[in-house]
Write a structure and sequence with these properties.
Elements lengths: L2 H14 L2 E7 L7 E7 L1 E2 L5 E6 L3 H8 L2 E7 L11 E10 L2 H11 L12 E14 L5 E5 H4 L10 H11 L1 H12 L7 E6 L2 E6 L2 E6 L7 H19 L6
Antiparallel strand pairs: 1-2, 1-5, 3-4, 4-7, 5-6, 6-7, 7-8, 9-10, 10-11
Length: 242
């Protein structure tokens, strides 16, 4: 497996998780790291977005020193040492809510309540380097050039894709979740589309379904979704309607 495939695996793993340990430089205990758990999502380009309170210790620490790390792992696994984890090292800075709030709130609708406090703000962690451990003996540094995806016009126009899937292709999404996660559902909804895959929700659970390859255009996304639907039909033994 080459470094690009390793970077894709690490990125897709990061998109399957929804919270991580944010480590900042403590201002009250100089020289010590301070860890806190925060929800996050990755932008299409590969930077992590967090939504944090001005009065939180980690926010005070970021304002004093923006160098942070975000460690992502699957808390549902029994043996965390034997399973994948990703640490993103980067620089945290405020980001305009208009750029990220819709996507963040789609994945974390409970955060809408925080808007009323006028105390929470969005920060983006500009990725500098990534440490990926895919299990015992599978340890890699991933450089920014292999992690980051160049910004493209379709990245900011995914809502039309999402609306189209939710309005016209619920049956296809049901097949995809059935094939991928054995989920029986008639309330599937697409939440997001990224170059590496898409998020869906069903019965208040969020699922990430990866694409086989990184999508570089809206047409690539369409082809990937059609491919996943056809693969799901074949796996489930369902013939395509004529």
């Amino acid at each position: 497996m080459g470094l690009r495939e390793i970077a894709l695996e690490a990125k897709q793993f990061s998109r399957t998780q929804h919270s991580g340990v944010l480590s900042t430089h403590s201002t009250s205990m100089q020289g010590y790291p301070f860890g806190s758990v925060v929800p996050y999502f990755l932008t299409p380009e590969g930077d992590a977005v967090i939504y944090i309170s001005n009065i939180a210790l980690h926010t005070r620490n970021i304002k004093a020193d923006p160098k942070v790390s975000l460690t992502i792992y699957d808390a549902g696994q029994d043996d965390s040492q034997a399973n994948g984890r990703v640490t993103i090292l980067g620089d945290a800075e405020p980001i305009d809510a208009s750029e990220v709030s819709a996507q963040y709130l789609a994945l974390f609708p409970q955060a809408k309540a925080y808007e009323q406090t006028h105390d929470f703000n969005f920060y983006v962690i500009r990725t500098q380097r990534i440490r990926f451990i895919g299990g015992f003996g599978k340890i890699h540094w991933i450089e920014k050039a292999l992690w980051k995806v160049e910004s493209q016009d379709w990245h900011s126009a995914t809502q039309s894709m999402i609306d189209h899937m939710n309005e016209d292709h619920i049956d296809a999404m049901e097949l995809i979740l059935k094939a991928q996660f054995n989920v029986e559902s008639n309330d599937v909804k697409m939440l997001s589309v990224f170059p590496e895959g898409a998020h869906y929700t069903s019965h208040n659970t969020v699922y990430f379904v990866p694409f086989e390859h990184i999508c570089e255009s809206g047409m690539d996304v369409r082809k990937a979704l059609v491919q996943q639907t056809n693969q799901a039909r074949a796996q489930l033994g369902i013939k395509k309607a004529s």
